[in-house]
Amino acid sequence: SDVGSQKDRVVTEEEWLQKWEMGNIGFHKEQGHPLLRKYLDVLLSGRSGLRIFFPLCGKAVEMKWLADMGHRVVGVEVSEQALKEFFSEHSLPYCEEPVPEITGGKKLQSTSGNISLYCCSIYDLSSSIVGKFDGVWDRGALVAVNPCDRQRYVSLMISLMEKNSSYLLVTVSYDPNKHKGPPFYVPETEIKSLFG
């Protein structure tokens, strides 16, 4: 599979923060993603009260939707602005506390306790900090991660999953020679080799 000129492309944390500051967030879906609704039963597998992880969560509206169904939601996002916008746009009170294991890391948690959002690099997380998850909703994370970091990202995701986890992944398909990304093109063969 030809990934064009993308394999060496690197988007810095500062560039992501700038996207949020400038409001250049075309990746955010106000109504939530239709594929989550369509495949929700696959993610939940008839189970209730799950811990569901949102890697690179932004201010995804699905976090509140799943929390309202009785699930506990944990997200991670480098932009504090995105996390604060999530809570304010849903009129959710929250408290903020430092995460001692992560230099400069913060946890913003709804006062109801069912939504915990970490403000830090995803690579600062580990199961000793956030625990393990019954489900992962990866709507724009794998395709946003720098291609050179994919293996590191997937290894982290696998380490955060319980044995019976469901992992719902959304990717995009296009000619990588015509678009430099992100979102990056991740061929299906690579997804299979990454996740095994």
What does this molecule look like?
With 196 residues, the protein is α/β, with parallel strands linked by helices. The chain has a single domain, classed as Vaccinia Virus protein VP39 (Rossmann fold, 3-Layer(aba) Sandwich). The protein has 8 helices and 7 strands; from the N terminus they run αααβαβαβββαβαβα. It has helices spanning 13-22, 34-38, 40-44, 62-68, 80-89, 127-130, 150-159, 188-195; strands at 51-54, 72-77, 94-98, 106-110, 115-119, 133-138, 161-169. A 7-stranded mixed β-sheet has the order 3-4-5-2-1-6-7, sandwiched between helices. Helix 4 (62-68) links the parallel strand 1 (51-54) and strand 2. The chain is globular. Keywords: Cytoplasm, Methyltransferase, S-adenosyl-L-methionine, Transferase. GO terms for molecular function: thiopurine S-methyltransferase activity. Its main location: cytoplasm. One of its GO terms (cellular component) is cytoplasm. It catalyses: S-adenosyl-L-methionine + a thiopurine = S-adenosyl-L-homocysteine + a thiopurine S-methylether.
